[in-house]
Design goal:
The protein has one domain. Helix content is about 85%, strand content about 0%. The protein is built from three helices and no strands. Helix 1 runs antiparallel to helix 2 and helix 2 packs antiparallel against helix 3. The chain starts with a helix and ends with a helix.
Length: about 90
Amino acid sequence: MHRAHVDYALMSVFNFSFYGAAMGAGIELPVIACWCVAIGGFTNPTIFVVAALDDDFWDKMIWKVLSAISFLITTTGFVWIGYTFVQHYLKA
């Protein structure tokens, strides 16, 4: 359960940091990428909460699939936002 608390805090720091850096640099972030990061910022820590409540969590295929989808969505958002920053600074 402690892992979920830390993950919620880290994901919120990531979200605010990306937003603040983009606003400060005048970069418009792709809306879909922001949604990916926001969805992952909620679903990834929630997976740890569910896992803490279910001893057989990782033995169930549905949770493995949902975890993989959640991590894929989150990673897509982070990479896309990172690519947007790099693209902006290479043009500058």
